[in-house]
Amino acid sequence: MLTPHDVTNLPPGDAQGQSHSGLYILGGAADPSTCSCRVGRCADFPFSNWWLLNLVADNGSVNLARVRGNYYELPCTGGINADGHLWCGSESSGSLFLLDGLISPVDGSLALSLKAVVTEQLVAGHDCDIQQSATFLFGT
After folding, report:
1. For the whole model, what pTM was predicted?
2. Tally of CA atoms within 13 A in the half-sphere of 136 that contains its CB
3. Which residues, in sequence order, are CB contacts of 114 under 8 Å at separation 6+?
4. Residues 30-52: pLDDT tens digits?
5. Which residues does 69 contact at the CB level (< 8 Å), separation at least 6?
6. What's phi and psi for 32, nearest 5 deg?
């Protein structure tokens, strides 16, 4: 299970400049690989609603913000390496989010994995652990 220590004060990476910054659009299904609820039901979450993300990379630091979508409290902050590997975390309303990803050197797509603990403060009637993956296509 995630703890606040896992998702806060994440270090920057070794990337230089602002490459990889831009909008990323959900490129397909984003169903969870695992979901377990102590309170509520996993079926209540619209897992495909990550939709559109804005990534800002600046000299190894990353800010990832949701432009459209549901439930995933972003922005999250973290780091990015020159090879396109990125990570970021967020703590919001008692819920915890940790994202790990890789930007493809071939097509610029962003493959993200999410681990989350979603609590009742964020989504009424729910206390769930979620793992989910999705691919986002680089937009303009």
Report:
1. 0.84
2. 27
3. 72, 97, 98, 99, 130, 131, 132, 133, 134
4. 667 788 999 988 888 766 555 67
5. 26, 49, 50, 51, 52, 53
6. -70, 145
